[in-house]
Amino acid sequence: MKNAVRLALALAALALAVPAAAQHEARPAVGLGVSITPNDAFLGVNQTIELYVPIRIAPQIRIEPSLGIFSSNGATDRRDFTLGIGGFWVAPVAGPVDLYAGGRLKLNFAHQSTAAASDSSTDVSIAAALGGEYYLVTHFSVGLEGQLGYYSHGTVNGDDDGLFTTGLAFLRLYFK
Predict the structure, then answer these.
(1) pLDDT at res. 19
(2) What is the CA 155 to chain-centroid distance, rounded?
(3) Which residue has the higher pLDDT, 3 or 107?
(4) How many C-beta neighbours within 10 Å does residue 118 have?
(5) pLDDT: is 109 or 19 the higher one?
(6) Other C-beta atoms within 10 Å of 135: how many?
(7) Calpha distance 34→171 (Å, rounded)
(8) DSSP string, 11-34
(9) Which residue has better confidence, 135 or 46?
(10) Given a cut of 60, is residue 152 above it in pLDDT?
(11) Pick from 34, 23, 100: which is nearest to 61 by CA?
(12) In the beta sheet, which residues pair with residue 92?
């Protein structure tokens, strides 16, 4: 009897895995996404708006270039331009849910000027990332990502370095 139950459970798991894998292969290959940093959004902190381009280069491999821009005017004029790249291993969990793990590398080119002086510097960050994505429909997903990383800021952002953790919420729209 125990063997029959085990066999039934194994067949049920296989039956559920096949549709999930088939749906995963049918996922769109290219999209456009935006990230939201929940803590900063709720606190009203100004931050860089980043656009992401998820590109599935293999059924379980995705690269995700990103571009960010921040600008503020006032007594201090501030501009940041951020270029990034992420690489991820993607695995289907169940029907509309994917999990992914990988890393992100970002370069931020910062410029700040006041009436008295101006300064420019480059910031670097590298982070391990773990996230999940839920497809509301075939071409639209929402997701969450956690990061643990290292940053090195130039003079504009404090001339320091250290470790960081952050969480992001994503909205992604896929085209094909």
Answers:
(1) 45
(2) 26
(3) 107
(4) 12
(5) 109
(6) 19
(7) 6
(8) HHHHHHHHHHHHHHHTS-SBEEEE
(9) 135
(10) yes
(11) 100
(12) 98
Task: Name the nearest CA neighbour of 76 among 157, 154, 153, 151.
Answer: 157
**Which pLDDT band holds residue 131 (cuts at 50, 70, 90)?**
very high
pTM, two decimal places: 0.77
Distance in angstroms (rounded) separating the CA atoms of residues 143 and 131: 7
Q: How deeply is 129 buried, as exposed, middle or buried, from its count of CB atoms within 10 A (0-12, 13-18, 19+)?
A: buried
- Under CATH, what is the fold of the domain 2-174? Porin (2.40.160)
pLDDT score at 24: 46
DSSP, collapsed to helix, strand or coil, labels residue 43 as helix
Question: What are the residue ranges spanned by the domains of the chain?
Answer: 2-174
Place of tokens 């289907």: 92
Distance CA 130, CA 148 (A): 9
Average pLDDT over residues 9-15: 47
Q: Which amino acid is at 136?
A: L
Run of H or E residues at 3: helix 2-25
Q: What is the CA radius of gyration of the chain?
A: 20
Query: Are residues 99 and 132 in contact, defined by beta-carbon separation less than 8 angstroms?
Result: yes
- Token readout for 19 is 């549709």
The helix or strand, by DSSP H or E, that contains position 68, with its residue range, turns out to be strand 66-72
Dihedral of the alpha carbons of 147, 59, 49, 47, in degrees to the nearest 10: 0
Residue 14: pLDDT band (50, 70, 90) is very low
